[in-house]
Amino acid sequence: MYAVTLDMGGTYLKSAIVNDKGEILEGSFNKKPSKSKCSKETIINNIVNLLNLEIRKASDLSLDIVGLGIGIPGPADYEKGILYIPPKLNKYHSLYGVNLKEEIGKKVGIENIIFDSDAFLFLRGEKWIGAAKNFNRVIGITLGTGLGSAFIIDEEIIVDSKITPPQGWIGGMKFKNGIVEDIISARGIVSRFKQLKKDSSICTVEEIAALASNGDKTAKQVFEELGKTLGEVLKPIATKFKPDCIVLGGQISKSFYLFEETLIQELRALPFDVRVEVANFIELSSLYGAAKLVFSTF
């Protein structure tokens, strides 16, 4: 069996054809700008064009495509594929309230379309064939334009107010004068760097990470603070959920070495041991997870 998969990131769309053994079909991985700040028509056409590229490839190879799995950012109605992203997040604002299942379905010719949180799919993928494979209770954290999260026990995503935050979303929890992802996210990192270095023209996490790697004290401080804050946020959550592993994904996790020490130091206060791992497939985890979700319906 094969599934067509799509990850609707705020910056990029990623797609691939994945089989039920957890293998991406050679030559099927594609990545292109998401155009998430454009009009509804532009965004949907961009998505459909990418999906049809995969579907044509599958057709040419006579593959048995059993469904389409799509990871979308929240908040959303995942059953219908409707985004409810607030304007301040500055992505996919023109899709607010749009039924993507209907819009995409009528243009790609696939009936079995399943949507889920991009963070949930990230953790499903890592649990299936990645860094979380050998652990039972896992928290997944995606660090990028926002902070996504997911909780899994064995093979089941858990959303339970007794042991997880509302909707399983750590990024939306109240923190200081806003929410967690105001600080633990790309915009939070850039904002803190500019606060400390007021004359800076630096505007991306990648630039700040490069500076930190080259010994810039301000850049190093920003990442050290990131690790400490993430640890402070995770401690009460981990105390309730009791994970044996925390898996980090998203583009910012590529700079884990810059905030590993302060994060681990905070987590040592927990009354149990917890492993912290970087995802095996930072670019691909959500695609594997989307395929796993499609296959689980059979």
UniProtKB/TrEMBL annotation:
Gene3D superfamilies: 3.30.420.40
Transmembrane segments: none
Top-level taxon in the UniProt lineage: Bacteria
Family affiliation: Belongs to the ROK (NagC/XylR) family.
Name the UniProt record assigns to this protein: ROK family transcriptional regulator
UniProt source species: Petrotoga halophila DSM 16923
